[in-house]
Design brief:
The chain has 427 residues and is an alpha/beta fold. The protein folds into two domains: 160 residues, Lyase, Ornithine Decarboxylase, Chain A, domain 1 (Beta Barrel), CATH 2.40.37.10; 176 residues, Alpha-Beta Barrel (TIM Barrel), CATH 3.20.20. 28% of the residues lie in helices and 24% in strands. Helix 6 links the parallel strand 8 and strand 9. Helix 7 packs parallel to helix 8 and helix 8 packs parallel to helix 9. It is elongated. The protein binds ligand LLP.
Length: 427
């Protein structure tokens, strides 16, 4: 019996039908026959359900979801989420260009990022309000540059300060972002100093405050803590400015179940938001993982297997270049064979073909696999930070992506070719 993780209250999109693993009823085996292996496969239904779960939990609030594009930046995914009403959280000029292509309305975009360059800001300043609803400022130097640029170019922009509330999100160290030692955002003192020094500029309007304390958060306490500090700072900042701010952005971070985690209750998350921000005119949140993770799987084929005594290793045609989370964070991803044929589970190390010992997907995992070439598996919960973090390391072209939505199968990104790998090399 294979447990398949689900989002809180989301429908399960990957399930077995007649012994074949399907995505919303479409056999993954058939998708591999059609599009090749390895292959990223996404369920539109899962994305829609996850989006509805979040927005319904927070209904009644002046909410705008700004999907964190970095989780999965495929244009079709952006278009789908935008059609549901989502905006986007962008962290680079490249992501901004994607939002343009996907026609995500400008009023629903925010721009974060610790290293917005002068060149990127200049390109954005050609557009009204820099092509976004607001820019989230992460350092004093960045703020000063924005003021200089906006005044020189006579362009109005809205900004929010990204606040680092010094709260431990109690998640993996490598994906924590809201502690003092993390590089993100500004301290309370820095924000108040900037507000006192620059107050209201003719062109740069301070409209809000934002936070993002980390990712894969499965405990409500850090949110409560961070929201409380944010609400306090908001009151103080408003008294310095002599006016109310028009929004707060609470960031992303809502965790999902990869193995046996207990995701937070969205209803209780909503109660916290209401407790701290009842009178704020606009509330933004930036979920990434909670919308996409469970919606995607990386499907891969066995190339070889090896047995050394009691140790069995199965080698897949996917590698850490396709899905880096296990190698980078020791992250757990459920692995499900595409065929359920009643064979007995045995212990496997599941690895890729990259020349690195850290290139693995699972260690000592009980799987009903024989280790024969051509057998297929799905590495589940890979819809977020899967393809978007993939690379061409070892000169392996990036894999194709397929979206199954409302009964239709769509190739949303072609498999890269060798030509794609070398086309920028002057040879
Ligand atoms: N907003 C900001 C400013 C962020 O930096 C992030 C994620 C999000 C929102 C979305 O957070 P989410 O809802 O997805 O937790 N690569 C790591 C995750 C890094 C998250 C970076 N920032 C992983 O695979 O676990």
């Amino acid at each position: 019996m294979i447990r398949i993780p689900t989002l809180p209250s989301a429908e399960q999109s990957f399930f077995y039908r007649n012994g074949r693993l399907t995505v919303d009823g479409v056999a993954l085996d058939d998708l591999v026959e059609r599009f090749g292996s390895p292959l990223y496969v996404y369920s539109g239904a899962s994305i829609r359900t996850a989006y509805a779960a979040i927005t319904q939990s927070l209904r009644g609030l002046p909410l705008q979801v700004c999907y964190a594009v970095k989780a999965n930046s495929n244009l079709h995914i952006l278009k789908l989420l935008s059609s549901l009403g989502a905006g986007c959280d962008l962290v680079s000029y490249g992501e901004w260009r994607r939002a343009e292509l996907a026609k995500v309305p400008q009023g629903r975009r925010v721009l974060s990022g610790v290293a917005k360059t002068a060149k990127e800001l200049e390109a954005l300043f050609k557009h009204k309000f820099a092509g976004v609803y607001s820019i989230h400022v992460e350092s004093a130097m960045e703020f000063e540059l924005i003021i200089l640029m906006a005044n020189a170019l006579k362009r109005e922009v809205r900004v929010a300060f990204r606040y680092n509330p010094d709260v431990d999100a109690r998640t993996l160290d490598k994906i924590s972002t809201g502690r003092k030692k993390d590089k993100f955002g500004l301290t309370r003192e820095e924000i108040l100093d900037l507000a006192i020094t620059y107050g209201d500029d003719d062109f740069v309007r301070i409209e809000g405050l934002s936070i993002h304390i980390g990712s894969q958060i499965t405990n409500l306490k850090p949110y409560d803590h961070a929201f409380e500090r944010l609400a306090d700072l908001k009151t103080e900042l408003e008294s310095h400015l002599g006016r109310a701010l028009s929004y707060v952005d609470l960031g992303g971070g809502i965790g999902v179940r990869y193995r046996d985690e207990h995701p937070i209750s969205l209803a209780r998350y909503a109660s916290l938001v209401k407790k701290h921000f009842r009178k704020v005119p606009r509330i933004l949140i930036e979920p990434g993982r909670s919308l996409l993770a469970s919606a995607g799987a990386l499907v891969s084929e066995v190339v070889y297997s090896k047995e050394r005594g009691a140790n069995r290793t199965v080698i897949l045609d996917a590698g850490m270049n396709d899905l880096v989370r296990p190698a980078l964070y020791d992250a757990y991803h459920e692995i499900a064979p595409l065929k359920q044929d009643g064979s007995k589970p045995v212990k496997w190390d599941v690895v890729g073909g990259i020349c690195e010992s850290t290139d693995y997907f699972a260690k000592s995992r009980m799987l009903a696999l024989e280790g024969l070439p051509g057998e297929r598996v799905a590495i589940l919960s890979s819809g977020a930070y899967g393809f978007s973090m993939s690379s061409t390391y070892n000169s392996r072209p990036r894999v194709a992506e397929v979206l199954v939505d409302r009964g239709k199968v769509k190739l949303i990104r072609k498999r890269e070719t060798f030509q794609d790998l070398v086309k920028h090399e002057n040879f």
